[in-house]
Design goal:
The chain has helices spanning 8-20, 23-30, 34-48, 65-93, 102-106, and strands at residues 53-54, 62-63. The chain is mostly helical. The protein has a single domain, classed as Arc Repressor Mutant, subunit A (Orthogonal Bundle), CATH 1.10.10.10. A two-stranded antiparallel sheet has the order 1-2. A hairpin with a 7-residue loop joins strand 1 and strand 2. The longest helix is centred in the C-terminal third of the chain and has 29 residues, at 65-93. The N and C termini lie far apart (38 Å). The relative contact order is 0.13.
Length: 107
């Protein structure tokens, strides 16, 4: 089975559900319908071939072992993308003479 690639949006939905403790809380935080949050998680689970949240008999979804394993990586990816966007925004608002060199950005 070929594993699909989750989108950045799906990773953000996954993190929002985990952090808020519910699909409803994630929906409110992200300004979306609960059905959109549920769909995003279901699509991500289908792409990865794993169940990320145990939902049976509880209004509060809890991470499965697979979900727990994905958590750190999902945070790392979203944090790096946020840092990239921040760096690009900084480059766009600074005058060309004050921009850091590519070497500075690369470490």
């Amino acid at each position: 089975m070929r594993i699909g690639e989750p989108t950045l949006d799906q990773l953000r939905i996954f993190l929002a559900v985990e952090e808020e403790g519910s699909f409803g809380g994630a929906a409110k935080r992200m300004g979306r319908a609960i059905s959109a949050i549920s769909y995003g998680i279901a699509q991500m689970e289908a792409q990865l071939g794993v169940t990320l949240f145990a939902r049976e008999g509880s209004r509060k979804p809890s991470l499965t072992d697979a979900g727990q394993g994905l958590l750190t990586e999902a945070r790392a990816v979203t944090d790096r993308v946020d840092a990239l966007v921040w760096a690009i925004n900084e480059l766009m608002i600074r005058p060309a003479t004050a921009r850091p060199s590519v070497r500075t950005l690369g470490g």
